[in-house]
Amino acid sequence: MPRSILFVHAHPDDEAIGTGATMAMYAAAGVRVTLVTCTLGEEGEIHVPALEGLAAAEADQLGGYRIGELAAACAALGVTDHRFLGRAGRYRDSGMMGLPTNDHPRSFWQADLDEAAGLLLDVIRETRPQVAVTYDPNGFYGHPDHIQAHRVTMRACELAEKEGLAPAKIYWTAVPKSTLQAGIEEFAGTANNPFAEVKSASELPFGTPDELITACVDGREFAEQKVAAVRAHASQIPENYWMLSVAGNFGAEFMGMEFFQLAAGERGPGGGPNRWESDLFAGLAQPAPVPSAR
């Protein structure tokens, strides 16, 4: 039985931006990488003029288009096991917090927690992940679908625990406050820097205190795959997107290093001055092989 890891993201493109290098690294190592995306991203901002008619206020076909973008991103990362929560279109993008789209009857923000968690539990039953990855309680930056993805993942793992199937470790995506501060200073003056007016990481609505970081995955070898996956979401990510601009200046170091906070399970051995784990499976035994039929 191979090692198995589950990533739960809110919209197409979140997987590439937040965990692309980690996913590519584990896929290349033969780990079963399962990606569950909770919505189609129907409320996304379109950056390709020729596609503007797909917008929610127009033909409302953006979600279907983004299925293809997500497939291309997964191909770039080497991820072959991808599903939408329940099915494609089961839950709708809720839009940013406080917008009327939060109240759409199919919005993920309005989803029944146990129902949605039950759908994710079905995936856990099938794939038996030793590790699960999602967002922190604030959804990293406060988007309602990210917050709901956190709630659904944590509830699904609770339900899986009752069946003896819970992942041994659960991680939340993170960026250390110190890394944000260093970035603010180092990237000052770079093209299309959205944080150009920010002087301190404390001003940003996201970032994790360094003492809460438990893992740093070095995926620099897979930085180009991550860039390709980000570029695959062209409807959402313009050529002058700040992440691509910074990647052009600072390359693999910026794109390949991804951080996590351990939310459940035992911390494994780490290294360096922070004793951070370099492997999300750190401390876990290899899964026992499935007995062959006789």
Automatic annotation (TrEMBL):
EC number of this enzyme: 3.5.1.103
Signal peptide: none
Annotated positions binding Zn(2+): H11, D14, H146
GO molecular function, one term: N-acetylglucosaminylinositol deacetylase activity
InterPro entries hit by this protein: GlcNAc_PI_deacetylase-related, LmbE-like_dom_sf, Mycothiol_biosynthesis_MshB
Cofactor(s) required for function per UniProt: Zn(2+)
Zinc recorded as keyword: yes
Catalytic reactions of this protein: 1D-myo-inositol 2-acetamido-2-deoxy-alpha-D-glucopyranoside + H2O = 1D-myo-inositol 2-amino-2-deoxy-alpha-D-glucopyranoside + acetate
Keyword annotations of the record: Hydrolase, Metal-binding, Zinc
Superkingdom per UniProt: Bacteria
GO aspect biological process, one term: mycothiol biosynthetic process
Cofactor note: Binds 1 zinc ion per subunit.
Stated family: Belongs to the MshB deacetylase family.
Its job: Catalyzes the deacetylation of 1D-myo-inositol 2-acetamido-2-deoxy-alpha-D-glucopyranoside (GlcNAc-Ins) in the mycothiol biosynthesis pathway.
Protein name (record): 1D-myo-inositol 2-acetamido-2-deoxy-alpha-D-glucopyranoside deacetylase
Species, as recorded: Virgisporangium aurantiacum
Gene this protein is translated from: mshB
